[in-house]
Amino acid sequence: MMLRMRAVDMVEDAGYTPVEAMDAAEAIAILESRSDVALMCTDIQMPGQMDGVGLAQAVHARWPAIRIIVVSGQLNLPHLDLPPHSTFLGKPLDAGEVIAEMREMIGRA
Fold first, then answer.
1. Domain residues of the chain, as ranges?
2. CA 19 – CA 40 distance, rounded (Å)
3. pLDDT at residue number 7
4. Which of 25, 24, 78, 27 is nearest to 46 (CA)?
5. What does the pLDDT look like over 52-65, one tens digit per residue?
6. Are 62 and 86 in contact (CB under 8 A)?
7. For 75-98, how does the pLDDT look when each residue is reduced to its tens digit (9 = 90+)?
8. 71: burial class by Cβ within 10 Å (0-12, 13-18, 19+)?
9. Before 78, cis peptide (omega within 30)?
């Protein structure tokens, strides 16, 4: 919860409007009801039946224009099968790095 709150603060600091989801199922439901989401940030470890990499793959398959940031505190991960237009950031997250990556990914400097 605290990490998600910090991520929301970073999104707001970058000048964007965050939309929060508790798990992959809620994230997909939100995307099904909105057409204004340009970027998604997900942790690899999340509650529910789908992890963050699975969510990234599912989102890319249905909404290929959405850019995706995948984060994890585990830096010794085997090869991650991230979809195109995705990037991996390790924790602890640096707010400046996250904001710069968001802006670059969705084209707003």
1. 2-106
2. 9
3. 84
4. 24
5. 999 999 999 999 99
6. no
7. 766 678 899 989 999 888 888 999
8. buried
9. no
β-strands 67-72, 39-43: how paired?
Answer: parallel
Cβ pair 26, 47 in contact under 8 A:
no
**Calpha distance 66→85 (Å, rounded):** 8
3-state secondary structure 38-88: CEEEEECCCCCCCCHHHHHHHHHHHCCCCEEEEEECCCCCCCCCCCCCEEE
Separation of alpha carbons 62 and 5, rounded Å: 27
Where do we find the tokens 């959405």?
66
- Tokens 């290929």 correspond to what residue? 64
Question: From CA 14, how far away is CA 40, in angstroms rounded?
Answer: 14
Q: In this structure, which topology does domain 2-106 adopt according to CATH?
A: Rossmann fold (3.40.50)
DSSP 21-32: -SSHHHHHHHHH
Report if pTM > 0.90.
no
